[in-house]
Prior knowledge:
The complex is a heterodimer of chains A (about 700) and B (about 290).
Chain A: E1 9-20, E2 23-35, E3 40-44, H1 51-59, E4 66-75, E5 78-79, H2 85-91, E6 96-99, H3 103-106, H4 113-125, H5 129-142, H6 148-152, H7 161-173, E7 179-183, H8 191-208, E8 211-216, H9 219-223, E9 228-233, E10 236-242, H10 243-248, H11 253-261, H12 302-306, E11 319-320, H13 325-330, E12 352-364, H14 369-373, E13 380-392, E14 396-400, H15 407-415, E15 422-427, E16 430-431, H16 441-446, E17 447-450, H17 464-476, H18 480-493, H19 510-522, E18 528-532, H20 540-557, E19 560-565, H21 568-574, E20 577-582, E21 585-591, H22 602-609, H23 651-655, E22 660-662, E23 668-670, H24 675-682
Parallel strand pairs in A: 3-8, 3-9, 6-7, 7-8, 14-19, 14-20, 17-18, 18-19
Antiparallel strand pairs in A: 1-2, 1-4, 4-5, 9-10, 10-11, 12-13, 12-15, 15-16, 20-21, 21-23, 22-23
Helix pairs in contact in A: 4-5, 5-7, 7-8, 17-18, 17-19, 19-20
Chain B: H1 2-12, H2 16-38, H3 70-106, H4 108-122, H5 126-141, H6 147-177, H7 181-188, H8 193-229, H9 241-250, H10 257-286
Amino acid sequence: MTPLNDPLLDIRDLTVSYRTGGRALDALRGVSLRVARGQTYGLVGESGSGKSTLALAVMQYLPAEGAVTGGAITFDGRDLLAHSRADLRHLWGRELALVPQDPFTALNPALRIGEQLAEGLRLYEGLNEEEGNARAVDLLRTVRLPDPERAAGSYPHQLSGGQQQRVLIALALSGRPKLLVLDEPTTALDVTTEAAVLDLVAGLTRAAGASALYVTHNLGVVAGRTERVAVLYASELVEDAPTADLFRQPLHPYTRGLLDSLPRPGQRKDRQRLSGIEGRIPPLDALPPGCVFEPRCPLAVDRCRSERPALDEPVPGRHVRCHRWPEILAGDVSAARAPQAALPLPLATGESVLRLDDVTVQYPLRRTAVEALRGESKKAVHAVGGVSLSVNKGRTLGIVGESGSGKTSLARAIVGLVDRTGGDIDLLGLRLPPRLSDRGRAVLAQLQMVFQNPEEALNPYLTVGESLSRPLVTLLNLGRGEARQRAPDLLEAVRLPRTYAARRPAQLSGGEKQRVAIARAFAAHPDLLVADEPVSSLDVSVQANILNLLNDLQREHDSTTVFISHDIAVVAYLSDEVAVMYLGGLMETGPAAALFRPPHHPYTEALLSAIPVPDPAAIQSAIRLEGEVPSAVNVPSGCPFHTRCPRKIGAVCETETPPWQTGTDGKRIFCHIPLSELAAEQAGGGEKWEE
Amino acid sequence: MWPRVSSFLRRLFADFPSALGTTIMLVFLLLAVFGPLLAPYPYDLPIYEHPRQAPDATHWFGTDHLARDVFSRVLVGARSVLLLAGGGTLVAVALGTLVGLVSGYAGGWLDELLMRFFDSLLALPALLLALLLLGTLRATYGEDVSAVGKGLGVFLVLAVVYTPIVARVVRSVVLAVKTRSYVEAARLQGESLGWILFREILPAALPALAVEAALRFSYAIFLTSSLGYLGVGVQPPNPDWGLMVNEGRRNVSQVPWAMWFPAAAISVVVVGANLMAEGLKRALREE
Lengths: 691, 287
């Protein structure tokens, strides 16, 4: 253990304020933490917690309207706040480096990758042009970019998001910094890419003996990769502990709430409800006078309302800001909710609500004049290539896949926002016309959708009540007056106050907006609800409540759901049936209960192994996909996954379309490898998921 | 309805520039309506006792080379500016909004057709296009077009010249907004085309539209006066501000004030329109 009396980074009582509209608002209040040499530190918080402000303050990258108004930051024995801009230029890159959140805006689009890397190397190490370029290629090799020479000669837009993020890591490591600050380094990436990038960073920092500060909203990301974790909430540090201790016994009710909000692999909706945290994070200009978490805390007592708790040290090396930690530590009280047993599922009648038969969606590409003259045929993006599925009444079908898998195109083809190019879709036994304009009101009423981004789900120029009354007018033929009167009832059904009807969307939080969008979708009692990533842009504490709500409403309305997500843990929790998509095609279908048991399709196996599990003790098989998702314009022949499959058996995968193999538990797998063989190779990985 | 209007007005008057701009435009509107009643002298008759009089207590803005009271002419001219430039802009904004909404929302060949047609109109300089149109009108209706007829001609020219520009602005907003979830949700709820265009999409275009309208109005004042100068628009003795500037320009050595005051009036109204547009943009956004 590195001695903590000589930390690399020592933040003491740091307060950072932003001036907006003539007022100063504290984005950080009295935050202290110490990062030892060679240590990896996790910094977890939801949006609005101040975690990015802390990262920027450490880097001295605060915007003009932000300023450190109290406390001290000591880096490697030097006062960081006293440094002039000229001194900082020597620190940046060589001692302190940042891996920013969004790779798409962090690289200069007009410079080749190699030049962007070599520029810094020439400055840091005085290399000449040739040496710099050679080192740049070396660095790209270190971050395991395929074909580093070619990557060095490419422009950023020629690389995928995952590759760009690797370049940024190479850039950050190029000056051999002592501290690497990673601000949500993988939020913009796909699950399997995220896992690979995180592994890479962990390996590289360990090899270089550098410290790392991981800033993230995802507890699962820090669980297996950091030594200590600090939790921020509403601009305060509420808990700080060694990772294993924090996950084993969180002392702050907020940390407990965060942990309980995530569906654990193996947890299912029919066995246990998720427990989210009620309420929303307080705005900076209206912080509660006592404990900042008091309004949402299940353990709040009178003292919490009036008196701000101090940051105590209950156990050496652990810090918590809570009045009630002695009782929590002793086990007298717990913020964990008694596990609420879910209501039993309605009996499946076996009546098929939705049936897809060989559905294809293609987006035609324009030919250039030259291509047309040469007589080349028109090309198209094959977003969905021949998907057949069926969902029974009252059931939930989960569709999981990464970006580019075609899952959203499939959802949009079902509801009619995209015209399908081929195949049939039957709803309640009736053929759905491809075009939305050919579907009558009666059909529209049967089929509704919840969208991904709550920020654009509601018309900002209408009140919530007006938005909610519209489907009643158009789909249920109610008069406008009557529809207005019914709107508050719809709000009540999604557990929102009736008075919200008079509000505008701008006055609602993201989670509340999504609730209103769900209320609108259920207003006309649809038979089928298509939910496209409904929780992926929400904070984890809110996610759980929305998932519970979707589940409850489905039961109340006896409706059927198609639930689309990139998050296989969420899909497994909420669905009865799961379909895994890759590059426009299905790879595996089967009951959700069997999802975590082998045999798996090799792609499903990779998805499962990439889940960020919020448990440092979890042992996951480390299957990481190499390469990039191929273009959907030229889908690979044979098995579309063969270009990246870690279990590829040979030429047969490239030439022959794999067979659909049916397993004993109702699983169907699209693969050349016999199921028994898959099961045998994947065995030993299955039991760990079970509760 | 009323609380919404009053809160809108409060936002419009919340900061000084937009309050100033809005006040200027309100005063301008009042002048356009009551100007002829307030004018102390007839706008088109010479005052023989005070030819080429510099501004003083009786003639605040002085008298011009034909001994007409400039202050009265400016007051009376407000109506002409509002009717021609303002009215023409209004028609262009209304038409452009409609075409932009439909073209952007429908997309496909209709969008392609309309936009290429507008491109061809925009390829010609505004003044040239205006001359072309007025020439055609004159050829059709003969040389002897009454003053009203000429006014209508200018009106038509402004609509034709500015509709494509407004349509493009609206269309660009429509393209950005039509893929938002709330518009798609409205389609899935079976909302009518009218509701989707005017209630779901149009509000998002209003801020950009307000700025564009103010800009078009400014240019319309200049275009009207240019046409007058070239002898194809409004004709003397009409007290159109642009026309007065051009007349004053010819006699600038003797009666410079005859040019100053209408020019200042144009500047004040143009600045006022733009300040108000900025305020409108913000007030509409905050809704």
